[in-house]
Amino acid sequence: MSDLWPLALGLVLVLEGLLPLLAPGSWRGFFSRVAAMRDGQIRFMGLIATAIGVALITFSELK
Questions:
Q1: More confident residue, 2 or 17
Q2: What is the DSSP string of the chain?
Q3: Do residues 42 and 34 make contact, with C-beta atoms less than 8 angstroms apart?
Q4: pLDDT at residue 1 tops 80
Q5: Where are the domains of the chain?
Q6: What gap in Å lies between CA 49 and CA 24, rounded to an integer?
Q7: 23: which DSSP letter?
Q8: 47, 40 in Cβ contact below 8 A?
Q9: What's the rounded mean pLDDT across residues 7-11?
Q10: Virtual CA dihedral for 40, 52, 13, 2, nearest 10 degrees?
Q11: Between vectors from CA 56 to CA 3 and to CA 34, what angle results, nearest 5°?
């Protein structure tokens, strides 16, 4: 289990870095739109992302 944390963190960093690497203009535009959102909208996006992540982890463990 302790080997899983560095792997998971590395995967997150790779995935988070792909869009700014490949399309920096789109990435900047996305974050300017997110910055203009209300706190509740950003929290809802975080809730959805967290729920999807938990579902993916749960279903991958059931295999």
A1: 17
A2: -TTHHHHHHHHHHHHHHHHHHH-HHHHHHHHHHHHTS-HHHHHHHHHHHHHHHHHHHHHHH--
A3: yes
A4: no
A5: 4-61
A6: 22
A7: -
A8: no
A9: 88
A10: 120
A11: 100
